[in-house]
C-alpha cells in the first residue's frame, strides 16, 4: 500500500525506472490512466509508458516541454497545450475510447477540449508498463534524456473511461472504482535509483 507515499526518481538524467504489473486478461477498447507528478525538468520526459511487442508507444503519457503533454495510443499521438506549471504537483488523467476515437485529457481536475485518436484501434494486453522511462523496444530501448526525475504518485489504470465525477475524484484522491493498476495496491519493482518516501505535503 503506497497511500501517501511517492516514488522519488533522484537523478537527472537517469537509467532508473519502475516496472508495474497489471492483471490484464483482455485487450483494451477503453482505458483511463491517471498520475500525479512533481518535477522541475524542462526537457522532454516520459511519465507512463505501456509497450507491447508490436508497438512501443501503445499507451504513452509524455511531456516534451513544460507547456505541453502528448498522449499516445497505438503509436499515434495528440497534443494538449497547458499553462506552464508553477513548479507544483500536476495531476493528469488521459482516457480513450475505441468506438469514437475520443481522447480526453484532464489536468488538475479540469477537462481540456477533446481530440480524436485511433478510432477503432485495440490496445493489446501483453504489455511492459514502466514509470520514468520511455520504451523504444519492449521493456527497454531507453533514451536517458527522456527519463523522468522528480516525484510520482497516485498512478492508476482503468479499463474504462471514467465519468467526469470520477475524474475529479481522482484529482481529489477520493474513493475510486476498482482498477487494473491501483496506487493503494500496486504490484511494482524498482530498477535503479528510485526511493519510496512519504509525501511531503497533501
Automatic annotation (TrEMBL):
<protein>
    <recommendedName>
        <fullName>Pentraxin family member</fullName>
    </recommendedName>
</protein>
<dbReference type="InterPro" id="IPR001759">
    <property type="entry name" value="PTX_dom"/>
</dbReference>
<keyword id="KW-0106">Calcium</keyword>
<keyword id="KW-1015">Disulfide bond</keyword>
<dbReference type="GO" id="GO:0045087">
    <property type="term" value="P:innate immune response"/>
</dbReference>
<dbReference type="InterPro" id="IPR013320">
    <property type="entry name" value="ConA-like_dom_sf"/>
</dbReference>
<keyword id="KW-0732">Signal</keyword>
<keyword id="KW-0011">Acute phase</keyword>
<dbReference type="GO" id="GO:0006953">
    <property type="term" value="P:acute-phase response"/>
</dbReference>
<comment type="subunit">
    <text>Homopentamer. Pentaxin (or pentraxin) have a discoid arrangement of 5 non-covalently bound subunits.</text>
</comment>
<keyword id="KW-0964">Secreted</keyword>
<keyword id="KW-0479">Metal-binding</keyword>
<feature type="disulfide bond">
    <location>
        <begin position="34"/>
        <end position="93"/>
    </location>
</feature>
<dbReference type="GO" id="GO:0046872">
    <property type="term" value="F:metal ion binding"/>
</dbReference>
<dbReference type="GO" id="GO:0001849">
    <property type="term" value="F:complement component C1q complex binding"/>
</dbReference>
<dbReference type="GO" id="GO:0005615">
    <property type="term" value="C:extracellular space"/>
</dbReference>
<dbReference type="InterPro" id="IPR030476">
    <property type="entry name" value="Pentaxin_CS"/>
</dbReference>
<comment type="similarity">
    <text>Belongs to the pentraxin family.</text>
</comment>
<dbReference type="Pfam" id="PF00354">
    <property type="entry name" value="Pentaxin"/>
</dbReference>
<feature type="domain" description="Pentraxin (PTX)">
    <location>
        <begin position="3"/>
        <end position="202"/>
    </location>
</feature>
<dbReference type="InterPro" id="IPR051005">
    <property type="entry name" value="Pentraxin_domain"/>
</dbReference>
Amino acid at each position: 500500500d503506497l497511500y501517501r507515499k511517492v516514488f522519488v526518481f533522484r537523478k537527472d538524467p537517469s537509467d532508473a525506472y519502475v516496472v508495474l504489473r497489471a492483471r490484464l486478461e483482455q485487450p483494451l477498447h477503453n482505458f483511463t490512466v491517471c498520475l500525479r507528478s512533481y518535477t522541475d525538468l524542462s526537457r522532454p520526459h516520459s511519465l507512463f509508458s505501456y509497450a507491447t511487442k508490436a508497438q512501443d508507444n501503445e499507451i504513452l503519457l509524455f511531456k516534451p516541454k513544460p507547456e505541453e503533454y502528448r498522449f499516445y495510443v497505438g503509436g499515434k499521438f495528440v497534443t494538449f497545450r497547458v499553462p506552464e506549471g508553477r513548479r507544483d504537483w500536476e495531476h493528469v488523467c488521459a482516457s480513450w475510447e475505441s468506438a469514437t476515437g475520443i481522447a480526453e485529457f484532464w489536468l488538475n481536475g479540469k477537462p481540456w477540449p477533446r481530440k480524436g485518436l485511433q478510432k477503432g484501434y485495440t490496445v493489446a494486453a501483453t504489455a511492459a508498463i514502466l514509470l520514468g522511462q520511455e520504451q523504444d523496444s519492449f521493456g527497454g530501448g531507453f533514451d536517458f534524456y527522456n527519463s523522468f526525475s522528480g516525484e510520482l504518485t497516485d498512478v492508476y489504470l482503468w479499463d474504462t473511461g471514467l465519468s467526469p465525477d470520477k475524474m475529479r475524484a481522482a484529482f481529489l484522491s477520493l474513493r475510486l472504482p476498482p482498477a487494473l493498476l491501483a496506487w493503494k495496491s500496486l504490484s511494482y519493482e524498482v530498477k535503479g535509483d528510485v526511493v519510496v518516501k512519504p509525501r511531503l505535503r497533501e
